[in-house]
Amino acid sequence: MTAASPDQPIRFEPEEAAPPGVALLVGFQGAALVLAPTVLNVAIAIRASGLDDGWLSWSVFAAMLICALMTAFQAIQLRRFGAGHVVLAWPAAMFIAIMVASIEAAGPATFASLLVVCSLVQIGLAWWLPILRRIVTPVVSGTVTMLIAVSVLPIAFDSVQDLPAGAPTSAGPVIAVATLLVSVIVTLRARGRWRLVAPFISIIAGCAVAAAFGVLDGDRIAAAAWFGFPDVPSVGLDFTPGKEFWALLPSFAILTLVLGLKTISDGVVIQQGSRRRPRAIDFRQIQGMVSVNGIGMFFAGLCGTLPTMANSSYSLSLISLTGVAARRVGVGVAVVMITLAFFSKFAAVLLTIPGPVLGAYLMLAMGMLFVSGWQTILRDGLDARRVLVVALASALGLGLHGHPITRDLFGDEVGSLLGSGVTIGAVVAIVMTFLLEAMSTRRSRLEVRLDMASLPAIDDFLVGVADRLRWNETSTLRLRSAGEETLATLLTREEAEEGSERPRLSLVARPEGNMVELEFVATTRHENIEDQLAFLTDEAPIPTIDDLSLRLLRHHAAAVRHQKFHGVDIVTVQVEGGA
Asked: Which residues contact 391 (CB under 8 A, 6 or more apart)?
């Protein structure tokens, strides 16, 4: 199914009901996109961990079921859980390295326990996102993402030599190079749907070269039943965690936090690509998306497989190719994936892919992840302070990864676990961001009630800010007017219930050069201010009483940004001034 028109690509928005047949057909296409990465990511992690074929079959089966259920849960959106959009889920490749390290050091039970505990970190991030957003920033997330990609690459290169006994020495590199070469050619030359199937084509080409070397084993395919339920290994949790658990916990928690941050950026991209007309980002749906990711990690821990994550590139590709962004597609994807999970013969075909082909696939995936991290940093903007954070965190993370100094400080066993470059880089980036935020001594803060009676206090506060900056009378008036109109816009149009109290309003002023950033944090029931401003620009040339404050705010402010969270509204207004 294809989009109707390049000028109007979205045929069904998330809230619109697509016919069941359309939802199932598009769901089949979505399942086809994520099926191979789902199996391959798990296969790489399990094989590198040294677990047997029983674990491999079970982990792939469990991952397919969990990804299917989380994709459906994201679409359904139940209360504070779910994105309400088509969000394709797949196993997180960024957890491959730490899964291998934890299983080798302490066994599958410890790995499972760490996932279950850290699933709470992701759910907590969703609930406390308004508080953490200024400390755990895109710069932190992007830096750690790049370090993750670098830390996983050794596993990819080790997989190149994962060959049966007696295979030619040159077989591994030749198979890997052929796989990469075909992937690059197809990606560069293909268009539309063919570009999406570039991984499949490169994997087939790699398997063909492996067959020429005699290292492709088809016994697994012949032995597999057509349909069935795999044997469940001794999956369990460690209720008496040892020192390995506590040594690995910081790395797991930080990596979980980064996974949550990447989910936030993925959610923003998916929301932007699912509408006919641009809308402001609804961070309540982003919070729901992160919460469901945490639930997926919890079930992955119970099953002993890789945790799930959202894949914005596949989700957007599916939407742009079909023009269908309706929630029902998520349920359609889940139905198809659950059906294929019990189709054992098909999974067996994917599990026979040789190690060099998997290694080449992982190299390309980690290269893309590294670029994704760098793009995240650039989207947030780079100034001297952010450059310092990225530079120091990257240098220490890469330089101290596996360095003997951690073993000298903490002993061989614990030191090797704490010497992860991802953990070191993440801690450095978070601490530096916190220090830079705390050292912003010019920041001023005011706490009042969200009520028009608080206007005199807000006005006095803004006059004081302008006086300290030695702004002229015109700039001071502009700042005061922006504060007044933002307050008027935030106030709910409905009368408060009798006896109820007005919510609190926190106002923070951050001077930046010749501009002041005003941050209003309150609880309201308004629609997004950015959407209202866009509506005034496009549709309402004649002002009314209701939109007068919005029009005045647009006149006085250089920029307005509104972030709606569950229970919290944050409006950021930038006002230009001068002496």
From this structure: none
